[in-house]
């Protein structure tokens, strides 16, 4: 029924029963399908369009300009990302670590958190950046928590009993912000909060609150201008699904699939501005459409 709310514990129990690998977290669309590669490629391109300073390559539309013979230098500061509902760290490995200097992963499923730590320690694919030498080495922290309890601006704050700092891998002298105090947004705010294939396990009320906390944790300039972004990338049903409610409830994993209209209503309630909307291309036709929303 469209008015049913997600049961967080049932959702965790469902995902705990799946395999802790790409095939498991993507519901059978693992490495033998085009989904992981196409998803990662489109996400990286979207992020680079929002944060072009992450790129070391001159954009094609500027390559013929004499003044653009070399790419703009990357600012001499660490770029930070937050991977929400991170699973085994697939998005961190294939999308975020290739671009950012540090990543915080948040995930509530015990087997996924353990596998994410194992993947980070093994250092394959994008995780290799955690084992580089010198300035190329990057860093991750892994948090075991549900998003309804996690505050990106102060992880070990009011809900600290529901948040566990599970692991820290990579650059040992990386200057992580103290999780027991609020971020200094100009120096420590997130450049990107990435939310993908997870917020169906939050009610609208919980989702609005989490998006507001995420917005409050974005990097902010000295003059108060927000410089970071939130990207929500999720399955989307039709606006008339669920008897016109624009919401479909999945009994198996106790989650909601929202329509584009329902997402826009949530974003408006959270006080966010929709800056860009992109539909994922190339996925198998039997899947829900996947839409990425860039917000502030």
TrEMBL record:
Family annotation (Gene3D superfamilies): Vaccinia Virus protein VP39 (3.40.50.150)
GO molecular function: N-terminal protein N-methyltransferase activity
Keyword Transmembrane helix: no
Biological process, per Gene Ontology: methylation
Coiled coil: none
Catalytic activity of the protein: N-terminal L-alanyl-L-prolyl-L-lysyl-[protein] + 3 S-adenosyl-L-methionine = N-terminal N,N,N-trimethyl-L-alanyl-L-prolyl-L-lysyl-[protein] + 3 S-adenosyl-L-homocysteine + 3 H(+); N-terminal L-prolyl-L-prolyl-L-lysyl-[protein] + 2 S-adenosyl-L-methionine = N-terminal N,N-dimethyl-L-prolyl-L-prolyl-L-lysyl-[protein] + 2 S-adenosyl-L-homocysteine + 2 H(+); N-terminal L-seryl-L-prolyl-L-lysyl-[protein] + 3 S-adenosyl-L-methionine = N-terminal N,N,N-trimethyl-L-seryl-L-prolyl-L-lysyl-[protein] + 3 S-adenosyl-L-homocysteine + 3 H(+)
Similarity comment: family membership: Belongs to the methyltransferase superfamily. NTM1 family.
Protein name, as recorded: Alpha N-terminal protein methyltransferase 1
């Amino acid at each position: 029924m469209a008015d049913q709310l997600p049961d967080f514990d049932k959702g965790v129990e469902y995902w705990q029963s799946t395999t802790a690998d790409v095939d498991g977290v993507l519901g059978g669309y693992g490495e033998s399908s085009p989904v992981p590669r196409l998803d990662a490629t489109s996400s990286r391109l979207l992020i680079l369009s929002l944060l072009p300073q992450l790129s070391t390559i001159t954009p094609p539309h500027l390559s013929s300009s004499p003044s653009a013979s070399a790419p703009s230098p990357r600012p001499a500061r660490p770029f930070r990302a937050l991977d929400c509902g991170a699973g085994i760290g697939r998005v961190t490995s294939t999308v975020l670590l290739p671009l950012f200097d540090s990543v915080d992963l948040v995930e509530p499923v015990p087997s996924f958190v353990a596998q994410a730590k194992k993947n980070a320690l093994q250092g394959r694919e994008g995780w290799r950046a955690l084992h580089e030498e010198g300035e190329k080495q990057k860093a991750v922290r892994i948090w075991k928590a549900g998003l309804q309890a996690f505050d990106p601006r102060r992880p070990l704050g009011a809900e600290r009993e529901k948040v566990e700092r599970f692991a820290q891998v990579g650059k040992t002298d990386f200057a992580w912000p103290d999780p027991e105090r609020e971020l200094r947004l100009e120096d420590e705010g997130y450049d990107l909060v990435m939310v993908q294939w997870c917020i169906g396990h939050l009610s609208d009320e919980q989702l609005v609150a989490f998006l507001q906390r995420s917005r409050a944790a974005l990097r902010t300039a000295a003059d108060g201008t927000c410089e970071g972004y939130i990207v929500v990338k999720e399955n989307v049903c039709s606006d008339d699904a669920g008897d016109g409610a624009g919401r479909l409830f999945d009994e198996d994993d106790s989650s909601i699939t929202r329509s584009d209209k329902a997402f826009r209503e949530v974003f408006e309630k959270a006080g966010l501005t929709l800056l860009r909307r992109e539909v994922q291309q190339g996925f198998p036709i039997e899947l829900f459409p996947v839409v990425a929303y860039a917000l502030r």
